[in-house]
Amino acid sequence: MTEIALNARFYAHRPTGMQRYALELSRRFAGRIDHVRPAKPLRGATGHLWEQLYLPSAVGGRLLWSPNNTGPLAVGHQVCTIHDLIPLDHPEWFNRRFAAWYGWLMPRLAKKIQHIIAISQFTKQRIVERLGVRPDRVSVIPNGVDERFSPRTPEEIEAVRRALGINATAYILCVGSLEPRKNLRRLIEAWARVQPLLGADVELVIAGARGSSRVFDSVRLDPLPPQVHFTGYVSDEQLPALYCGALALVYPSLYEGFGLPPLEAMACGTPVVTSNGTSLAEVAADVAVMVDPEDVDSIADGIRRVASSSALREELRRRGLERASRNTWERTAQQTLDLLLDQAKS
Fold it and tell me: What is the reported pTM?
């Protein structure tokens, strides 16, 4: 039996954001940790009950690593990765029960467990300020990007465009679930202002599934301006070519604990337009066009600048590829495993 147990409840969810983090790291631990997961996928309240009531008995005396913001309160010998404090900082973006649960759980969990991993300096700062955790109990280990996110051939790009119904000869891409913090309403308003300047052959492509009605408040995006195309959920196999085919990724999120899509786009050689606040300032500083996510004109101007200048796109492509090369999941996994092994001895 290994000395570290993994809270593997995340297998019940599609691999986006936090779930992708957990999958990428657990795959690279090569038998060094023991996956403890429900016999069948459990979501919502049943998943939380399994985590709080069954998981502690399955862990025994081992160190537990909980990679996705939650964990059992009964296990003090635990390291939890906290990606963000969005349910606490912006409960209005979630349904009442979800916000209330995390508002109750996260402060108690942070004070009870042995150590916390934060995925950005911004998240560490919020943990220290909002949850009252000592800075020395929080280690920052940034996310990485998988090697499959890399420049693709024109044939691969065209195949994915056809599969996703993208008919425009050029497109600006936005990747993210349809939830309030992704700021899609302002993005669409910005697109309505800039689209006439770009011409009818440029499309805004929004890739992502609608957020769960059990979690998020609804997002109304109508009426839509011309040249907007929703793909719905995009598989991991399709995503790299979708990035590569875009003139740019626009990611005007209001709040991110890290923000994987900008880093993935950079690794694919795609220029990035993104927000100048929260963790995105860390991820994309000096390698992207930074905009004020609360200012529609700022978002529109960012899109216009990158879409109209091939020289700017080439410069951002070069800088982005260099930045992304420093952030690998292998590096994240090794730093995380080293920390877990150290904490297991404590």
Answer: 0.91
